[in-house]
Design brief:
four-stranded antiparallel beta sheet, 141 residues, single chain, globular, four-stranded mixed beta sheet, 10% helix, 2 helices, Jelly Rolls, mainly beta
């Protein structure tokens, strides 16, 4: 098992209504069109993760969990690794409910998209600079 903790921040343009993805970005801005983005200014990117974690993510038997906490409210998104995950992106990490893979994909077959997050949770994400405590957990089955 491997764990990585980091922080992202809320933004007034968080919508959180995308039906197939959830995204955290290291970028410092967000437009209302970014309906899957739930946090900005992430202190961690996929490309910055260590090689051992990248190897774990490339295994179909690895369960990947993203734990999020903002203003005392928690959400958890769980999905899977895949040989097609290369963690090459230096800006975004995207949890996908589908099997789509690219350099931005954190996990596939996720159990939640942005639209599945509680509306109370999303309301706290809409507060500019509200810190989001994030933790990634990699467990090989």
């Amino acid at each position: 098992m491997r764990r990585v903790s980091f922080t992202a921040y809320g933004h007034e343009n968080v919508v959180g209504n995308h039906r197939t993805t959830v995204e955290l970005t290291s970028e410092g801005f967000l437009t209302p069109q970014g309906t899957c983005i739930i946090g900005i200014l992430s202190t961690m990117t996929l490309s910055a993760l260590d090689e051992d974690i990248k190897k774990m993510a490339a295994l179909a038997s690895t369960r990947i969990t993203l734990k999020l906490r903002v203003s005392g409210i928690a959400e958890e998104i769980t999905g899977w690794g895949s040989p097609g995950l290369n963690y090459s992106d230096s800006m975004s990490m995207v949890a996908r409910t589908s099997d789509y893979e690219c350099g931005r994909t954190l996990m596939i077959r996720a159990n939640k998209a942005a639209s599945d997050l509680s509306r109370e949770f999303v309301a706290h994400l809409q507060k500019l600079n509200n810190p989001i405590e994030c933790e990634l957990i990699y467990t090989t089955e």
